[in-house]
Amino acid sequence: MFLILFYIILGLIMGLVLMLTLFRRYKMSRVLEKIDMDIILQGEFTLLTYNVAGLPERISSAITPRRESMIRIGQLISDFDIVHVQEDFNYSKFLYEKSTHLYRTIHKGKIPFGDGLNTLSNYPILEYRRIPWRHCIGTDCLTTKGFTYTKIKLAKNIYVDMYNVHANSHYAPRASYARQKNINQLMQYIYDHSADQALFVFGDFNAHYAFKLDNLPLFVEKTSLNDGWIDLVQRGHYPDVDDNFMPLPMLELTNANESIDKIYYRSSKRLIFTAQEYNIEDKKFIDASGKPLSDHLAVSMRFKWEWKEEI
């Protein structure tokens, strides 16, 4: 009798723990939620990509305390409709608690188990997948970096594919070769899973057009993607390859400079995107003393969209 009572109590405790865990996960991450939406044929939204430097504070290259910074980042990213974050490793709960986005991907975990990639959205996230890179080198192999795929519902029966990216870093030949392989893997996945679909690809590419070992021009050509910075700031002009290329410090960038944090987009035959604004957010994501909240500057864009009925 005592043994039976013990197992009954143990089962109740385990059930309570499971309920609390599920409640916490639902509170922290709403995704794959079925929801009805109004029939609309046009609108606009804002996007943001931000490497939030969420490594443990003792090894982070950001200059501000990570917990407090992540709380502030969570508040500020709420001003944007769809947000991709990278390096969201060890302080994700603080970012999620302060964000007002209704839909969030479920955090995969801290280093070395997580990929640091999450999406926060005011629009329903109907599907998401995490895809690790097949190639890495050095410190980039210490955690499972890669890219994510999400399907987001803009309106009733209107969907868009979105990819969040964090490619391998550094400029040494072997690191650049691994990054080329990353971009090729992403390119093939887009071809296999998003052919003819309207889509956005944004995140930390760790790559420049001007760096001769990066393959961004091939990526743009093969995927038919538009670069928001090229379209709105450069007026269609791509930087020339520079044999002596040296990147600017990331916290000194302005709209006039190419960032490794990029926003690409592509319309489909029926879902048309028109880029309206591009901005490197060099003044928004700062603490009370004016210090940047990360070692990257966030990049934002505003888009109008229109659904064209078949003629």
From TrEMBL:
InterPro entries: Endo/exonu/phosph_ase_sf, Endo/exonuclease/phosphatase, Sph/SMPD2-like. Pfam families: Exo_endo_phos. One of its GO terms (cellular component) is cytoplasm. Keywords: Endonuclease, Hydrolase, Membrane, Nuclease, Transmembrane, Transmembrane helix. The keyword Cell division does not apply. The chain crosses the membrane at residues 6-23. Coiled coil: none annotated. GO terms for molecular function: endonuclease activity; sphingomyelin phosphodiesterase activity. The keyword S-adenosyl-L-methionine does not apply. Residues 48-296 form the Endonuclease/exonuclease/phosphatase domain. This is Endonuclease.
